[in-house]
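Hi V.,

You were right to ask for the full record rather than a summary. Here it is.
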Amino acid sequence: MLDSEKHADRVYSTAEHSSAAASSPIAASWRRCVSQHKLAPEVAREPQRLGESEFHHVRERSSFVIEEATGEMDRLFSMTAQSGFCVLLTDENGVVLDRRGAIGDDKDFRDFGLWSGTLWSEESVGTNGIGTALADQRASTIYRDQHFLSSNINLSCAGAPIRDHNGRIRAALDISTCRDDTVEATMSILSSAVRDCAMRIETNLFRRAFPHARIVMVSHSGPNALIAVDRHDIVLGANRAARLALKLDDSRISAGLPAADLLGEVASDDAEGLEDAERAAIRQALSRANGNVSRAAVKLGISRATMHRKIRRLGLN
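Predicted structure:
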């Protein structure tokens, strides 16, 4: 059994030393909890529960996130359904929007506040998988007595932030348990699974934001760097990974960048660019017409004779 009093002493001792905070994200969180949030580890604090009306409003505002996260939450829960874990989805403030858990574990999770409508921000309940992942803007695993509050040291949590199509944090995904036989190695493995699910949700959100665009993976920056491109090869958006890799921000994107320029593809002069565009348009028309020149010409709004001249000039015959 973990000793609550000794835990509080250790938190205070660690939080006093800035050197510890500089080398450990847990120590840094403890220091924030004491100095910024004015929390005391020995004082039990139950997560704040939103009223029905307020919770309804919060869920409505994040309904699209819930929709895109549903499949990943189901998949993550299926991995741990028999092991005493619950899966939580929160908004960017740490309010639990949706959850998955076995009915037999519901009482324990409800008692700990791991329930829809509760607030798990770091400012509210100290170091925890959800709040600290949001505060640090990166995945966070908080194992038992790494929690700030002594009342939470029987919990083990792994959380990861979820970013929207603009690269801004919009939610968090978390898996938690209150079982005392859970080992740290298990939490490390589950943390990777949570991060992977969070990234897939981010991809879902990105595709949802640009339903009619072509989604391009920035190959040299890993599988998670995505840009959205319109039919004129103009970049419409980029997720966080692509923004970091390509040094993009909202102003550069809104200026209308050609994807070819951004991705460093071989540039041509304006004349060659126009010829390439014309060649591409004719090839597409021929393909859609199954090679029938007359039908392709009709689609392009030109005569059959003109179509033949263009085919010869562009070397498409």
